[in-house]
Amino acid sequence: MSRLDHATAWEALKSHYTEVRDLHMRDLFAADPERFRRFSLSVGDLMLDYSKNRITEETRNLLVTLAEERGVPEMRAAMFSGAPINSTEHRAVLHVALRNRAGRVIEVDGEDVTPLVNAELAKVRAFAEKVRDGSWTGATGKPVRDVVNIGIGGSDLGPAMVTQALKPYGKSGLKVHFVSNVDASHLVETLKGLDPETTLFLVASKTFTTQETLTNATTARQWLTAALGEAAVANHFAAMSTNAEAVGAFGIDTANMFRFWDWVGGRYSLWSAIGLPIAIAIGPDNFDALLAGAEDMDRHFHEAPLAENMPVILALLGVWYTNFFGSGAHAVLPYDQYLARLPAYLQQADMESNGKTTCRDGKPALWATGPVLFGEPGTNGQHSFYQLLHQGSHLIPCDFIAPAQSHNPRGDHHAILLANVLAQGEALMRGKTAAEAEAELEAASLPASQVEALVPHKVFPGNRPSNTLIMPRLTPRTLGMLIALYEHKIFVQGVIWGINSFDQWGVELGKQLAKRILPALKDDASPAAGHDASTAGLIAAVKALRAGK
Ligand SMILES: O=P(O)(O)OC[C@H]1O[C@H](O)[C@H](O)[C@@H](O)[C@@H]1O
């Protein structure tokens, strides 16, 4: 693949940028009453308004040309066909096969994976049903009341986020908990008040080698067997993994194992057996609706022309700000309390996928890649970091996400919430001029000297971009669409930047070093030698504190 900065469209965008950067969106809206229509699109129940971006039709055309030049349609076809596009691990990237409810043949190494997916999904459905209707019982014959998912990263964030997002679809008397951090406090606090007789543990790990998960699962196992004995493990532990051998070695009956495959990336795995806690929490039919929503988005992404393709548009806007405006961050702002964990989920999805500076061909990326992603739900962020969004020195594009109807209609709550989300997008776009600030202050009858002093502080530059995604209601189906939208956005950006979005070598070094430090912390005979002075000093200090010295 040739260099991004050698693309013809890149050069054209560079010179186009010099024409667009000084345009104010206020003026663009004033000049074009059709701007909303021109720059918005819908897929099923999901509508994207991207008119509040610093773009013209020419910008969109050039960005689409860049996507074509960088081979987005070809890579998209390669992904959907099961080609091994995860080049460093020689793997296919087939989360789309997990929601291929249409039953398309998708081959990996000559084998159609669709029947495998369907068979495993049937197992997940049946198990979830049994837990929900009480026919799966613990060792003492009691039905399950608490499910504890033990996993981390992709084996935690997706299921945890979705389970929280779809809480209105939960079942009373059945709670699903998530333990991820190796800090024992996470497990201990979760298990407080839980009864071993009615608790089911799901150990979720693609590799089944992850230190945190195995440590937590071992301690959970001790908690259970201390109360119910060794023989109880079979009724109280199930696993989701690609590694049957390690599951068996851990002592979980592989009859209670739900499998997935190496062509499912961890952070793209909530649609696989990793989604078992979701299916238990909301029921198999709702889990199916989640898959159906993702499939709707897959079909749209696969078939729609690039200029009308929602994930492609979001990706291109991100490229526009990252690579031309020099923006290094992106805010995801869901105005729905149920989506509180969406930013955390997307941090892994986006930053673990595109936080890289080595291209597919092994050469360095000489251009910026994935941004820092952050966010908070609802109006909380407005009373915290939005100050910086409005008046700070960084340009931070925002995605606002808002369901029009609440699951909890109470008085004016939802109208107030919606008024706020719409106001924020408007405020970021319009800003407030010095003349407007001055008029406001004068209307408040402030003395002229104070007006003059305050005006510069009251000015908002505006021209700050945002996308707004709205839907009738947060349902399994709309949530499925929303998640798949971001998955494909991330994919398109990776293709344009020339990186492999599906490996994560950057997480390995810390793991390796932790393995070296652990013995030094635990054992006085293991010296802290071989570490830099800071790390060695910290090891010694931590050791002394642990010993109460
Ligand atoms: O599912 P597991 O194999 O336990 O992996 C859990 C997580 O840990 C790894 O370090 C990766 O960074 C993540 O991508 C992965 O989701």
What keywords describe this structure?
549 residues, Rossmann fold, Phosphoglucose isomerase, C-terminal domain, 3 domains, 6-stranded mixed beta sheet, 5-stranded parallel beta sheet, 22 helices, globular, binds 6-O-phosphono-alpha-D-glucopyranose, Glucose-6-phosphate isomerase, G6P_Isomerase_C
Walk me through the structure.
- The protein is an alpha/beta fold.
- It folds into 3 domains: 4-70 and 304-430 and 465-503, Glucose-6-phosphate isomerase like protein, domain 1 (Rossmann fold, 3-Layer(aba) Sandwich); 95-284, Rossmann fold; 507-547, Phosphoglucose isomerase, C-terminal domain (Orthogonal Bundle), CATH 1.10.1390.
- Helix content is 48%, strand content 10%.
- The protein has 22 helices and 13 strands.
- It has helices at residues 8-20, 25-31, 35-38, 57-69, 72-81, 114-133, 157-165, 184-191, 211-228, 233-236, 244-250, 276-282, 284-303, 310-324, 342-354, 386-391, 413-430, 434-443, 448-458, 476-497, 508-522, 533-546, and strands spanning 40-43, 46-49, 107-108, 111-112, 146-150, 175-179, 199-204, 237-241, 257-259, 329-334, 372-374, 398-403, 466-471.
- It has a 6-stranded mixed beta sheet with strand order 1-2-13-12-10-11, sandwiched between helices.
- A hairpin with a 2-residue loop joins β3 and β4 (111-112).
- α18 (434-443) packs across α19 (448-458).
- The radius of gyration is 26 Å and the shape is globular.
- It starts with 7 loop residues before the first helix and ends with a helix.
- The relative contact order is 0.13.
- The protein binds 6-O-phosphono-alpha-D-glucopyranose.
- This is Glucose-6-phosphate isomerase.
- GO terms for molecular function: carbohydrate derivative binding; glucose-6-phosphate isomerase activity; monosaccharide binding.
- Pathway: Carbohydrate biosynthesis; gluconeogenesis; Carbohydrate degradation; glycolysis; D-glyceraldehyde 3-phosphate and glycerone phosphate from D-glucose: step 2/4.
- It is found in: Cytoplasm.
- Keywords: Cytoplasm, Gluconeogenesis, Glycolysis, Isomerase.
